[in-house]
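Re-run requested by the PI after the first attempt was lost when the workstation crashed. Everything re-entered from the original request form. Ligand of interest: zinc ion.
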Amino acid sequence: MPRTPGADLPDHPDWLWNSPEPKHSYDVVIVGGGGHGLATAYYLAVNHGITNMAVLESGWLAGGNMARNTTIIRSNYLWDESAGLYEHAMKLWEGLEDELDYPLLFSQRGVLNLAHSLQDVRDSKRRVGANRLNGIDAEWLDADQVAEICPILNTSEDLRYPVMGATWQPRAGIAKHDHVAWGFARALDRMGVDLVQNCQVTGFDRIGDRITGVRTTRGDIAAGKVALAAAGSTSVLTDELGLALPIQSHPLQALVSELLEPVHPTVVMSNAVHVYVSQAHKGELVLGAGIDAYNSYGQRGAFHTIERELTAAVELFPMFSRAHVLRTWAGVVDVTPDASAIMGLTPFENLYVNCGWGTGGFKATPGVGWCYAHTIAHDEPHPLNAPFNLDRFATGALVDEHGAAGVAH
Amino acid sequence: MMLIPCPWCGPRNETEFHYGGQADVPYPAEPQELSDVEWARFLFYRANPKGLFSERWNHQAGCRRWFTVRRDTTTNEIFQDDSHEAVTR
Ligand SMILES: Cc1cc2nc3c(=O)[nH]c(=O)nc-3n(C[C@H](O)[C@H](O)[C@H](O)COP(=O)(O)OP(=O)(O)OC[C@H]3O[C@@H](n4cnc5c(N)ncnc54)[C@H](O)[C@@H]3O)c2cc1C
Ligand SMILES: [Zn+2]
């Protein structure tokens, strides 16, 4: 008898979460089922005992930037405010596989941030000093030491922008983004939290400046508190309330090569020639760079952006000239003027905002969840996210991370 | 890659242009009079619509002039802005 192709494949694994109908009312409704929304719901349940809660997702769970990012995790940011938040996230990452009892493929293979000019060298050394004062692992490496860690990197002097050294954070690394979302989702489902997919929030119910619920494509839902975690689509929601936010939505692209033997031992990032590269567990080279210049909600970008980052990649890694682009894609990232996130209270009672993570919020996922959950539960920011309030744009207390976050990651 | 209609040079590749963001953001007439909140609005806040957006482009590698187009931020469809004469005076 001829065999049906695929007939001997294993059964579909058990579903990790259910897809319930939304109820009419919840204590807390979270808008957006990406990494941040899921992590926030998780810590609301675990740290604050709130489980009468729904995460509403317009598409499928974690199909936005959570599915599209290049998974770089690090905490070597310059300013104390950022160091506090990102390092808190890093510590949570270090226990997250055990906590969720789910494989996240969290791999602390380190990150090299390359310096290509004397100014880069000075800025990098300054950042290493700042990191150390904040208890974050950081070292300055010269070009020979860089070559020891990453032998496939071209550290010769004949590059147009030679590698003059790098900062090194050994505890940095990558994780499997989908597994992170699924691990949180499975835990939430087990605690009785509703994960509602294909449910787009289209507006809000309010009494004066108090938010009392959301309108959705699956009916109106009353809510004690509403927490936004909609990343690149946040402005569309807040425009409904006339609440202006200093964010601009842009395409951010990434790409992978075919599966290759393991050749790349760490994560390499370069602000100056603008590319960053790691190699996923399966073997693809994972590359990304900067946003496309214009505002867009289109989840796609232009090929010349890809071409530019590949030029940089091949210059830095000559052996990559033999690799092929297998797939490119884009997400929609919400960029702020100071390259730092916005997290906290809003002028509306019972409405909370977390957005502006732009090109670099994956690494913060558990830290965002922890601090945003605190903010929602106590109606007051956690000390670690207090500096990331919306008022800073008027007071001038910006957290300018263009130096450490200037490359998209 | 978008083809962007420069009013003077015709449709050209996106790589020749520099993006300028939201159009029609005037410099405050009385900057000294602004409160911190108003000043923040001028400096940091720009519209971020999903759909039609009036925006500035500079034909950097061409005639080097600024102009305004209306573009749909989901489809990238571009509509020539009939006010471009006014804004390039
Ligand atoms: C190409 C690329 C590479 C990146 N690389 C890195 C990296 O290496 N390291 C790093 O730290 N960060 C990186 N980032 C950034 C990171 O992905 C984001 O900052 C982070 O994922 C944002 O949080 P999130 O996971 O909650 O977002 P998302 O996954 O985008 O979640 C938002 C969710 O809200 C939903 N939503 C929106 N509007 C509504 C609505 N009205 N109703 C219901 N649901 C709604 C969306 O469908 C979406 O699922 C990258 C991003 C991109 C695009
Ligand atoms: Zn021109």
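Saved to the shared folder this time. Chain B touches chain A through 26 residues (CB under 8 Å).
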